[in-house]
Structures are given as C-alpha cells and as structure tokens.
Amino acid sequence: MATGEDMTIEVHPFDPVLATDADFDAYHRVLSDAQPVDKPHVPSITREAVIGGLRRPNPEFGPVRHWLARAGGEVVGVAFACLPEHENAHLVLVDLTVHPDHRRRGVGTAVLDAVREDVRDGHRTVIEGFQLPKGGVGEKWATALGFRVTHATVMQTLVVAEVDRARWDFAAPAGYRLVHWTGATPADLVDSYARARRAIHDAPLGDTSYQPRAWTVEQVRADEAQLREQGVEQRVAVAVHEGTGEVAGMTELHVAPHRPTWGNQRDTAVRAEHRGRGLGVAVKTHLYRRLLADRPDFERIHTGTGAPNTHMIRVNEALGFTTVRELVNVSRVLDPAPPAPRR
Ligand SMILES: CC(C)(COP(=O)(O)OP(=O)(O)OC[C@H]1O[C@@H](n2cnc3c(N)ncnc32)[C@H](O)[C@@H]1OP(=O)(O)O)[C@@H](O)C(=O)NCCC(=O)NCCS
After folding, report:
1. Same domain, 165 and 102
2. Spatial separation of the C-alpha atoms in residues 132 and 304, rounded to whole Å
3. Which end of the chain is more exposed for a tag (fewer CB within 10 A), N or C?
4. Residue whose CA is closest, atom 35 of ligand 1?
5. Do residues 30 and 112 share a domain?
6. Is residue 39 exposed (0-12), middle (13-18) or buried (19+ Cβ within 10 Å)?
7. What is the pLDDT of residue 304?
8. Which ranges of the chain does DSSP label H, i.e. alpha helix?
9. Does the Cβ of 109 fall within 6 Å of ligand 1?
10. pLDDT at 3
C-alpha cells in the first residue's frame, strides 16, 4: 500500500482463474484506454484478447503472476510478472500499465514495489521490463527507477491484404527441400531440427540477461506439448539438406486461439554451415504461402527482431513487412530480501 498525492493506492495479487466479469472489464479498460496513448499503431485490444492472454499466457516465459492496483476502489493499474525457468531462472519479467488518467501519481512505482516484494525468493536476481516503446513514457519511468536499457527490438507487421504475394516466390536452393508441419516435429527430423533451433544463439541479444533456450530435443518436445495445451497453433517450415537428410534452417509461427487471424512470427535460424544461400527467406516464404493456402482469411503477421540484426530486418521488409516501432528492454538488479530482524 502506498499513499499518492490525492489517493491511497492498494496493490493486490489477482488470479485470472477466479476473476469476475467486472475484474475483466476493469482490466480491459486500463489496457484499451492506454493503448491509443502508448501504442497508437496497434489495433485496439478486444476484451476477448485480454481474457485470452490472461488465461493462456505464453508458456515460454514460465508461470505468470498478476496484480491489480486500485485507488478509491477503481482499478487504475494492472501488472503481470513472468517467472521463467531453466536458463532464465534468475530473471523476473515484469509488465505494468497505469491508466492514462492516473499517471504521475506514484501508481507505477507502488505496483513495482509490490511486484518486487512478492517475487523475491532469494534466487531471482534481475528484474527486466520487456518491449517498452523506445523513448516512451515506460522507458522514462523505468530509467527514473534505476533500470538501464539493455536491448532494442524492431517490431514489424505484415498486413496480408496489402502485400504483393509475388514477393514470396522463392524456391528452395539446389540441394535442399522445403518441409512444412503444424504441431509435432516429425520424428526423423527432430534431432537436426533441435540443432537448427540452437543456431538462434547467434542472434544479437544486446546486454539483456535473458538467455535463449538451449533447444535440446526434450525442450522441443516440451515446447510443442505446452503450445498444444494452450491451444496455440505452431506452424513450422524447414529446409532439409538433401545430402545429409538434416534440417539446415527453420522458421516458426504461432497463432493464438484468441486471435486466430494474427500470426506471431517467431525464430528463424539457419545453421552456420548453410548460411548465405537464401535458406532464411526460402523457409519463411514457404511458411507464408502454406499459411495463406490453408487460411485465406488470415490478416496479419507480427515479428520482432533485435535492432542490430539489420540483415533480418531488411529481409522482412523485402517480404512485405513494415517497421512499425522500436522497443527496448530495461533491466535492474532485484534487491535481495531484507535480512530477518535480529532478536
Ligand atoms: C510507465 C508507467 C507504468 C508509469 O506509471 P506512473 O504511475 O505514471 O509512474 P509514477 O507516478 O510511479 O512515476 C514515477 C517516476 O517515474 C518518472 N516518470 C514517469 N512517467 C514519466 C514520463 N512520462 N516522463 C518522464 N518521467 C516519467 C518520473 O520520475 C516519476 O516521478 P515524478 O512523477 O515524481 O516526476 C505508465 O506511464 C504506463 O502505464 N505506461 C504504459 C505502459 C508502460 O510503458 N509500462 C512500462 C513498464 S513495463
């Protein structure tokens, strides 16, 4: 609990499983009123998408906890924190939004204090904010609170109705064949697919302490199972090297059940020994052609690429993506729990 200039701010954990319709209305109101202010290029978020996101969070980032901030009984801020596992068990990823009418009154700071208090377990040492509009209020607020900018991501969108699909006419280079699947990776490809996924480790990640996943075969299978459980459609296209029968390059796209006409273009990775032959473009365009053949109603594809990765950003532009904005990650030490009082 914190006292603002003209109101008392109360921050409490929030459980989307137990939430009422009124809670969802309030949550949606904060996000939908903030969206045109903070992200004017993004289409407005529907109540359904808010509930879908709350109930089916991206499994990649581990268990999620939520908080609501109230002032005078009204919900004025919402927050969630992801507690990733494995390589990122040292990290807390936080995302919070204050209603535009209630900013600069200490709500954001009170929420962050509550989150830090609740997530401290002695093991997690770093707290990061992800994907704040570059130069925006979130970045200013975070730097005022001791965070530093560690990485920048260029966000790009492809609007299907506006793209000339002739841009996607790429054949596989000689010596490779293109393969597409939805869901489970074929057993004969899973070893080399996991190896191709590991090539993402070469993508620049700046100074963020977020570690890309190790991508063992077990992780590939666990990821598929989690996405299936969440109702996320996972589409994959790969280039198979004819000489060895191994996956040389891969790309992946997710379709969340609450936004069935939007795709989230995920990793694209080509193993080092196969680079420079156009495989990245070949797998992406193969995936898009298959997607539109199966789903002619599809509307948009979104993707985010590390700002230093200018090659991939240019490739996306050539395929019809438009750069919409730049986002930054911010990071600071998560203070350890205060020592127990002495007797
Ligand atoms: C960023 C955000 C959470 C801040 O919430 P808030 O309740 O207004 O923040 P506070 O009142 O606690 O601000 C604390 C300090 O941060 C700094 N700050 C906050 N907003 C700022 C702005 N627009 N410009 C410059 N500094 C700012 C100030 O130093 C402020 O102290 P002051 O008001 O005494 O000068 C809110 O603007 C928001 O919801 N933005 C959209 C979502 C977002 O970017 N979230 C980022 C975290 S993941």
Report:
1. no
2. 13
3. C
4. 104
5. yes
6. middle
7. 95
8. 21-38, 47-55, 107-119, 137-144, 190-198, 217-230, 279-294, 310-318
9. yes
10. 45
From residue 231, alpha-carbon distances to 21, 42, 184, 224, 260 in Å are 22, 24, 13, 11, 11
| Distance set, CA 268 to CA 102, 145, 250, 298, 316 (Å) | 40, 35, 6, 20, 11
Mean residue pLDDT of the chain comes to 92
Mutual angle of helices 21-38 and 47-55, in 10-degree steps: 110
- Which run of H or E residues covers position 186? none
Residue 62 CA to ligand 1 center (angstroms) comes to 27
What is the predicted pLDDT for the residue at 9? 96
Residue 55 lies in a domain: yes
* DSSP conformation letters of 105-155: SSHHHHHHHHHHHHH--SS--EEEEEEEETTSHHHHHHHHTT-EEEEEEEE
Regions of the chain short of the pLDDT cut 50: 1-5
Residue 184 pLDDT: 97
**Ligand 1 pocket, residue 328 CB under 6 Å:** no
Query: Residue 69 and residue 80: Cα distance in Å, rounded?
Result: 11
Domain that includes residue 38, residue range: 2-124
Check pocket membership of 108 for ligand 1, CB cut-off 6 A.
yes
Domain count, the chain: 2
